[in-house]
């Protein structure tokens, strides 16, 4: 079955750019939407944004100015970049498969496959 | 942005209890609502999608209902494995928002 694995530095300095990659195995990245979600220590979940395999994106308005999500279909990977990080960006970052079908209308079926999460700490 | 409000924030219950968690949206989202269960140190797990559809492999004691702005997740008979934090999540016009979570604790 499809599995997701996040990878990237666990420590990032303030004002720098956080970069993470999610590798999709056991299936193709094609035909699905793929989201990034984060969870600060002891807090709830925050959706960061998604990318469709074709490259189209949509971001959380509260993070939009600092977020870039990209996809590399040849590697079956998608990536997150978050710029100008502060301590408030310290969190566990998850990638997930996001079941949205866009036809004449939108049909949404939830995020059914998640990575295990990777902890990113912002500190000098 | 659509805001999602869950209640209660914490719930104390015993094994065998019927448990209900409520999620309210700040505007109508039709039935585009999902419920997740998260255990400490683990990724969330999808339980319910489209407000009332049970994800494959999820026990039938979990059920969801509602449409528009008010939704509920019900656990018909709480089991030891169910103590966790539950989140609702909405979809609307390409955006998604999670509720703040409801922690179900052992009474």
Task: Give the total of beta strands of chain A.
Answer: 11
**Uncertain runs of chain B with pLDDT below 50, 5 residues or more?**
none
What kind of sheet is the major sheet of chain A? Answer: 7 strands, mixed
Structural class of chain A: mainly beta
* Radius of gyration of chain A from CA coordinates: 14 Å
- The shape of chain A is globular
Cα separation of the termini of chain B: 36 Å
**Helix content percent band of chain A:** under 10%
Instruction: Determine the strand fraction of chain A and express it as a percent band.
Output: over 45%
Average the pLDDT over all residues of chain B and give the rounded result: 97
Could you spell the SSE succession of chain B in H and E letters? EEEEEEEEEEE
Overall mean pLDDT of chain A:
96
Elements of chain A, N to C (H/E): EEEEEEEEEEE
Describe the structure.
The complex is a heterodimer of chains A (124) and B (107). In chain A, 0% of the residues lie in helices and 56% in strands. Chain A has 124 residues and is mostly beta strands. Chain B is globular and about 40 Å long. The termini of chain B are far apart. In chain B, strands 2, 4, 5, 6, 9, 10 and 11 form a seven-stranded mixed beta sheet that branches. A four-stranded antiparallel beta sheet of chain B has the order 1-3-8-7, with no helix packed on it. In chain B, strand 5 and strand 6 form a beta hairpin. Chain B is an all-beta fold. Chain B has no helices and eleven strands. The interface between A and B is medium-sized, with 26 and 27 residues.
SSE layout:
The complex is a heterodimer of chains A (124) and B (107).
Chain A: E1 3-7, E2 11-12, E3 18-25, E4 33-39, E5 46-52, E6 57-59, E7 67-72, E8 77-82, E9 91-102, E10 106-114, E11 118-122
Chain B: E1 4-7, E2 10-13, E3 19-25, E4 33-38, E5 45-49, E6 53-54, E7 62-67, E8 70-75, E9 85-92, E10 95-98, E11 102-106
Parallel strand pairs in B: 2-11
Antiparallel strand pairs in B: 1-3, 3-8, 4-5, 4-9, 5-6, 7-8, 9-10, 9-11
């Amino acid at each position: 079955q499809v599995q997701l694995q996040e990878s990237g530095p666990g420590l990032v300095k303030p004002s720098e750019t956080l970069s993470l990659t999610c590798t999709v195995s056991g299936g193709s990245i094609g035909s699905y939407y793929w989201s990034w979600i984060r969870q600060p220590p002891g807090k709830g979940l925050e959706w960061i944004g998604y990318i469709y395999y074709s490259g189209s994106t949509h971001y959380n308005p509260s993070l939009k100015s600092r977020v870039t999500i990209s996809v590399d279909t040849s590697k079956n990977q998608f990536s997150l970049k978050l710029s100008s990080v502060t301590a408030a960006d310290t969190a566990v970052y998850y990638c997930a498969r996001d079941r949205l079908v866009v036809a004449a209308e939108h049909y949404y079926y939830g995020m059914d496959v998640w990575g295990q999460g990777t902890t990113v700490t912002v500190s000098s | 942005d659509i805001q999602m409000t869950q209640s209660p924030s914490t719930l104390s219950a015993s094994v065998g209890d019927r448990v209900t968690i409520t999620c309210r949206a700040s505007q109508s989202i039709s039935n585009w609502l999902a419920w997740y269960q998260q255990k400490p140190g683990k990724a969330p797990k999808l339980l319910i999608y489209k407000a009332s559809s049970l994800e494959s492999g999820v026990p039938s004691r979990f059920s969801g209902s509602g449409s528009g702005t008010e939704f509920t997740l019900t656990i018909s008979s709480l089991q030891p494995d169910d103590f966790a934090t539950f989140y609702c999540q909405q979809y609307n016009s390409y955006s998604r928002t999670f509720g703040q979570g409801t922690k179900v604790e052992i009474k």
